[in-house]
Amino acid sequence: MEHAIRRQKILDQMPAGSAFIVSASHAQNRNNDVNYRFRQRSNFFYLTEIKEENAIILLIKFLDGKEKQVVFVEPHDEFKALWQGPQLGPDGAKKILNVDEGLSLLELDESILEMLHGIKRIYYPFAEDKKLESKLREWSGKLSKGKRTESGPTEFFDANIILGEMRLFKSDYELKQMRRAAKASVDAHARAMAMSYPGINEYEIEAELLYEFTRQGCIFSGYNSIVGGGINSCVLHYEANNQLCNDGDVVLIDAGAEYNCYAADITRTFPVNGKFTNKQKSIYELVLDAQLAVIDLVKPGTEWIKLQEAAVKFLTKGLVRLNILEGQTDKLIADKSYAAFYPHLIGHWLGLDVHDAGSYKVNGQWRILEPGMVLTIEPGLYFGSTYTGDYQGIGVRIEDDILVTDKGCDILTAQLPKKVDEIESLVGSGR
Ligand code: GLY
Ligand code: MN
Ligand code: MN
Q1: Catalytic annotation on 254?
Q2: 2-166 — its CATH code?
């Protein structure tokens, strides 16, 4: 019941006279009576681990310091039960969450106005749920209107600040979920490489990924899979995935499974015919060496931005060595010449969201890595349609998921090969 510990941790940080409100996802209509598959909102899942739609979790610390936790869920609905299966209902939700009260959403307005009486500060995640935001304005207005001697809530605080800081540090339980996502993703990438051959369509490769994700209980991907052959390997968030991968092309796959709402995020690049050309290999090895050098820096005490700076330096030097850039490394870095080929950052936090919660700066200073954080390391070089030299059509990114540990780091996705000879012998081996 880790969600109960998390909620208490939040209450411990709240002053008397405040409330903390987070809402669940709402069903997203696709067309007519067909919805998108329901995926719980990460912040709500973090505090409840339940997959009810429209629910609300409310944590209150009253003026006298007393605390109360309330969950609002859909009441029992026979029609919904027939089409979507049974739901928890207010009593079920109260029991499963071990909170003080479980109430029907039908009572939301009335109950919340009573409970928020005397509350001065409300925390909710900004820019997350328009419905909740407009309700909060409505309730706050009602609580203030016509009162001569007291006001309703006077402050809105962004709940993402507290939630982001907590979500940045993964518990053992969370790491277990993340290792499951990582394993499914490692196996899926290995399968996709093994099944590839010149002439395969990008969507056939995607199918191999999704097969393995699903087979391992990952109903969702953490994000849309990127499968780009040839020049498509240079499109950073390519997702059409419907072109042929021709003999001589590299294929870039950026795909990660989601297990119990926790994501993995892996990229590998390989020659579809099983043999890198010299040009492909020189770019591949430069990116790989850069990735290994940056991973070496992942340990407690390293400033996050130092990882990006190290990648920029390593890649810029390599581009000069390959005569792709000309000039002094320092100057090429200062004027951002490298950005034509390495246009993104080195990575991001990873967890319930692929680009996970948690700020990269604290009080204006770059975040220092600490045990329990999970981040991606994903350098890349891309020679797409705006580049006209010899390397055109080569896009290489290599991405792994890294846990910061007491002594250094643990690569959650280490089982997936990335050395040149390992990749070459894996490609096409499963056919
Ligand atoms: N898959 C998106 C990313 O690597 O950030
Ligand atoms: Mn990533
Ligand atoms: Mn990725």
Answers
A1: yes
A2: 3.40.350.10
